[in-house]
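Minimal example, chain plus N-(iminomethyl)-L-glutamic acid.
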Amino acid sequence: MAKLLIKNIGRLQTPVGSYPHAGKAQGENLKLDDAAVFTEDGIIKAITGRTEDGKFRNETLGPDGKAVVTVTDEAPQLTDESDPFLLTMDAGGNLVTPGLVEGHTHMVFGGYRQNEIPLKLKGAGYLDILRAGGGINDTVKKTREATFEELYDKTKGFLDEMMDLGVTTCEAKSGYGIDLESEVKLLEVLKKLNEDHPMDIVSTFMPAHVVLEDWKGKEDEFIDLCINEMFPYVKERGLAEYVDIFTEDSVFDYEQSKRYLQAAKDMGFGLKIHADEIEAIGGSKLAGEMGATSAEHLIVINDEGLESMAKGGTIAMCLPATSFYLNATFAPVRRMIDEFGIPVATATDFNPGSCPSLNLQFVMNLGYLKYRMTPEEVLTAVTINPACGIGRGDKVGTLEAGKAADLVVWNAPNMEMLCYRFGSDLAIQTIKAGVPMRQ
Ligand code: NIG
Ligand code: FE
């Protein structure tokens, strides 16, 4: 019966509702001042705070499991504060938001690739390094050599770091094993960590992440192998909820991606697609046509892709730290929001090549400065929209009675400050399922 009361919240800010927020709704957040939150057994039971008109908006969990909202002149007491089992926390007048949701990572990998930087600085592009047998090929080799225990310990370290930075739910892909046995090793690492670590992890199966040397010219056969052997194995064991593919020049083309995703859909997987990262070869168009849950990157998306995604209800999972690290342009997020009404999520893409950072706070800075999102849109892009992008919109991503007690107390008075300051860790406390994670 863990009970937590967070008092003295200067500003509580959150999107509202469990659906992907698009267009104008992307920038709509509930803002409460002088707020407090009461949580019990990992669930938010009550929230109160002052709205612009000076009155208190109070939300409690009704007996039917639905939230009940009342308005009062004075702040109500949320729980019996003399309860000896109650943990009370003072937020120090700071900002509190939902726990951040990280919607896109490749966090299980062997080795690192710092050796690529001098090549990059001499002008080699991401695909040049990949085509020459480096890049993902290199990480596959090191990942195959790594034991389960080594990968488990390394990934656990990443999860600890992410949680310190304010992330309470994350997505993670396989994709550095490529053969079934090695891919399953990565998914098993994630499964075990999901059980052992407070972080909630949603797994994505991505065997079509690279065309290894022995598969060059036999890409169609590799897709057959994925469809006929790998997908059924992973599905039967419940090792992944989503399937992803790298649809890119020199990797997998439109037709191969379509066949792969259709088979995954028929088997009941959710769909994701790495689309338009370097060349626009139809990936985002395909994402919309297939009704994919999300399409990732979208750096060079064209109007055809934007229209298709809007029609298909696909979430744009934009990865600005990868643009930064590849020295590339930034996805046209303002157009997605203003012209096409596509819900935008932002994530790190944490991986050893194109984004060796797992700092979602830096992604918020880039969302503000490079995508030109408002602080409200930025918050939506790191909470409810990625939550919907990984099938958790009903549980996390907003602060509402009945949802998970996943919150962050920030060393900032408001979202503007959080988006403006960069390079420091501004999370004072990450609360996961009603439990403070920092000692
Ligand atoms: O999303 N583009 C494909 N996959 C990753 C990079 C993986 C790597 O370089 O190791 C990405 O950028
Ligand atoms: Fe990625």
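The longest helix spans residues 219-236. The chain has two domains: 3-99+398-436, 100-389.
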